[in-house]
């Protein structure tokens, strides 16, 4: 049943606004219909005739006649709607975060979306995934870190970094270390073509070993160039032989050599006494990442060794030598960007960080 028609009286100002609304090509259809209903009602037209002309139901005409008569132009605007109440709230989010602070269920290495949903009991797994994505929480990604408990961490780190950012005048700074047991593996190489047409380089799962080599390497901090040699073993005698070759490569120059805390690098006082132009600087315990040669070893692995195949140990050694020569042709020094030493507490201990 249609309510009794309300009388609509328009002021000049409201009429101009509604007529402008009807003429404007930018007016939304819903607003255009409401304006026409009010204008026609103000002209004395009946509800049914207005509905037929505008193309709406009579009850719709009645709604907007009443809305305008009671509230004016503001009544023609949509009222705010509360919408559907959300199923999950901030309390749910706090429950997920609190659960992530607890160990995963027995037998599982880490939390997953389904495990979280199951533990919560009343939260859908899709919401769990949406929440994790919105907070940039990756349950699968893993990062590793190394805590140094060296009581002299700050002093040792400052000594090493000082050699990088302000090397002594007329002296050579070298970063020295070994990459042991590099395997000469022979694998079948080729291309794999996937069903979607994409082609990938590939290699066979099985392989044949042809021995290992230990690479002794030194990075000259000022130029970024590499001096490297191969050895069958990594004993103290091989290390000192490599140091002898370095002193021969820089005759009469003061050498500052950065080393990690490997046992063969220490207790070489007799050799150092015979070579007074050489001074060893040791990185803090469990902080060999301060040695720039480790960065170069990572580059060597990624650009030269990964995914390759060798039929003999000699071929592996020649391959590495060729890469060293090519690298030295375009070598540039690494840029040390960290300048401040800060300290923070971690698990009740003070951990020093660069």
TrEMBL record:
Residues 173-317 form the Tc1-like transposase DDE domain. It comes from the Bacteria. GO terms for molecular function: endonuclease activity; nucleic acid binding. The keyword Hydrolase applies. InterPro entries: Homeodomain-like_sf (IPR009057), MscS-like_channel (IPR052702), RNaseH-like_sf (IPR012337), RNaseH_sf (IPR036397), Tc1-like_DDE_dom (IPR038717), Transpos_IS630-like (IPR047655). Keywords: Endonuclease, Hydrolase, Nuclease. Pfam families: DDE_3, HTH_32. The keyword Nuclease applies. This is DDE endonuclease. It comes from Bradyrhizobium macuxiense.
